[in-house]
Write a structure and sequence with these properties.
mainly alpha; about 150 residues; elongated
């Protein structure tokens, strides 16, 4: 048999396998992009190079090949790792801090800013001199002012 025929036969028989693997890979990336890497926490499982992320991508591939739906795979990950693994966790009592925590931190920071500015204003008003203190300060500074005026 000629070499080009062997190559043609190889392509013919491996093309369907490659297409199926590519479909599994695309579906795995779609699911993994919605899941948070538990090691990196700022990357999706699809983007992370952590060993755990590599293992989780392999688990997703195996579940896809086993015929599981995307929702089944997400449910498996949540059952195993909790709602934190989802980039968009459902709104329920256990995830309230995930949903409203950043907003609460912003409000808390704003309150601290307002209180510190208000406190600074009060201190500047208290620090103002009364008439007696102003006369004493002028008397103390008078010799220094005379020296500056002469030069």
């Amino acid at each position: 048999m000629r070499p080009w025929r062997l190559i043609l036969l190889f392509i013919l028989f491996t093309a369907p396998v490659w297409a199926a693997d590519q479909a599994v890979e695309n579906r795995m990336l779609n699911i993994a992009s919605e899941l948070r890497c538990l090691v990196c926490q700022n990357e999706s499982i699809a983007a992370s190079q952590a060993d755990l992320a590599v293992d989780l991508r392999q688990q997703i591939r195996e579940q896809i090949r086993a015929g599981k739906s995307n929702d089944d795979i997400r449910a498996y990950m949540v059952d195993r790792y909790g709602d934190f693994v989802l980039y968009r966790p459902p709104l329920k009592p256990t995830t309230m801090l995930l949903w409203f925590g950043p907003f609460l931190l912003l409000v808390f920071g704003f309150l601290i800013l307002v209180l510190s500015l208000r406190n600074r204003n009060r201190k500047s008003k208290i620090a103002a001199l009364n008439e007696e203190e102003r006369r004493q300060a002028d008397a103390l500074l008078a010799p220094a002012n005379n020296v500056l005026d002469e030069s």
